[in-house]
Amino acid sequence: MTDDAVHVVAVVGSLREESYTRPAPRHALDAAESSGATTELIDLRELELPLFDADEDEAGDAPELARRIREADSVLLGTPMYHGSYSSVLKTALDYCGFDEFENKTVGLLAVSGGSFPVGALDHLRVVCRALDAWVLPHQAAVPNAHRRFEDRELADEDLRERVETLGVRAVQFANIEPDPASFESHENVGAEESPD
After folding, report:
1. GO CC terms for this protein (predicted)?
2. What is the spatial distance between Cα 49 and Cα 170, in angstroms, rounded to a whole number?
3. Which of 49, 88, 141, 194 is the most buried (most CB within 10 A)?
4. Is the CB of residue 122 less than 8 Å from the CB of residue 136?
């Protein structure tokens, strides 16, 4: 890898020991590595992150978490779906971060559920990332009925594995996208320009 290689970080938002959310982002990271990126998995089970208190916003391992996300070029957020939304541990992790970590950063979303498609979790994460001014990939990955999709902790469903791997590839391809690129139209908005004297 070169020093200017894209660095992709995946955050696992599950504390469950046998979680299917943990192996799923690894497929995305493997695809990112195959696309020339360096990668890192942040397993929230390994960090001490107390419930967020704005008066104690550097509690536990929060500074380390924020640093690792801040240094990434792209971030993948993986979550199980709980009651139609994403996990509380991932919410806590995101609460310890802010614009310094996410503004204009490329973010990919992945959700896993024991039942139907975890669309609610993906939608809610997209709203939070937009509030942080992140650039959220249009492509997202969902793994429904997870207990039937994995064999020996590996995604056995080829279509879903391809979708998850595509998320990793997109995280590399769009890591350095300009959220507000110059365009012909950006110079033609007469109403935004000062009127001539």
Report:
1. cytosol
2. 29
3. 141
4. no
